[in-house]
Each structure stands twice: as structure tokens, then as C-alpha cells.
# Entry
Amino acid sequence: AQRVTQPEKLLSVFKGAPVELKCNYSYSGSPELFWYVQYSRQRLQLLLRHISRESIKGFTADLNKGETSFHLKKPFAQEEDSAMYYCALTPYNTDKLIFGTGTRLQVFP
Amino acid sequence: ETGVTQSPTHLIKTRGQQVTLRCSSQSGHNTVSWYQQALGQGPQFIFQYYREEENGRGNFPPRFSGLQFPNYSSELNVNALELDDSALYLCASSLDSGNTIYFGEGSWLTVV
# Structure
């Protein structure tokens, strides 16, 4: 079965602390992995995708096929990072996004 | 702004009624998808349209149907509404397969 698991509903850190939002997936083929973010009162938007291998707003995510994980990391959290983060995958050759349940990140001053 | 607009933003319907939700995609976006997001959950894929043809469907019953029009607008229709249909419905569009997917702000549906 195709599934994305985000084990933490809420992650609270202080400004400047490192952040890791966990994401594990279940898929037998070669998926494409994404992180989407939703800031307060804004629409869901793409943060990064694994094939781009880029850092966006200081966030990075590495696809670990052995552990079937795609954790999102940032070395120093900022208050403006507070948002809802969703990990998602698309099966090979489709645009159908399969989302996890999301993790709310709260960054305190 | 991504250019994906949805209407209405909020609506309340009675169990058994029918509802039509509308989406206007960015010009040139041939692919549109609809998602249902229940409270506390991630979005769930309902179906996708590509150039006015259904191009994939999630685990939703036939009473969920859609249309895509040549002017890049689309509709989600839900018949025989049930209480569990209460959710945020998201429209998403992209230029073509593999391109960045842009989401609308969603339509909040409450079924009473």
C-alpha cells in the first residue's frame, strides 16, 4: 500500500534550535517525494522536492531509500518557520499526491 | 499569487443535497486535481483531469464527479451529501505532468 507517515502531530522548538520533521513512506516502486508547507491563512505550497536536491529557506531533505524516509531538516529554526508541514509522495509517472497527516511546527522566540 | 481560485470559500449543505464547487486554474494549466482534507488529516486525492478527460481517481465513490472545461476551469460535484463529506476541498493545477502543482485556498463544506 502507498502510505506516508508523519509520526509527530506537533513539534515545538525555540528560535535557533535545530529542527527535524520526520517522514516515512511505504511504496514499492520509485516515488517522488515532496514537502509542502501551509503558513497561517495561506494556501498549501511546495517547499521542496527530492529530485531538486536544493535548500529552500534553509530547509533540506534527503531521500533515504533504505529507511524509506524523507525527513525535513533545518539547523536553526526561525519564528517565521511556524507552519503546518506535509510530506507527500507521487507514485512513478503520476501526479497523484499522497499526503501524510502533517506536523505543526511551532517556533518560540 | 498562484492564480488558482476556488469558489465558494464556505458553504453549508443539508444531508442528501448536492453541491458544486468551482475552480479556476492558471491559464495553460492542462492538469487539475481535487483533494478532500478532513479536519486534522492530510489532503486525500479525489480525482484528476487532463485536457477535459478524467485521468486518475482515488478511493472515492461515484457520487463524487468532476468536469474540466476548455477555459481551464473545473468543477467538483458531490451528490447525496453525507455528514462525513464535511471537509476542505482543494483544487490543484499544473502545466503538465511532472511540473509544480499549485493549490487553491479551498472551499470549506459543512454538511448538517
Observations:
- The interface with chain A takes residues 2, 4, 31, 33, 35, 40-45, 48, 56, 58, 90, 92, 94, 97-98, 100-106 of chain B (CB under 8 Å).
- The longest strand of chain B covers residues 87-94.
- The two ends of chain B are 33 Å apart (CA to CA).
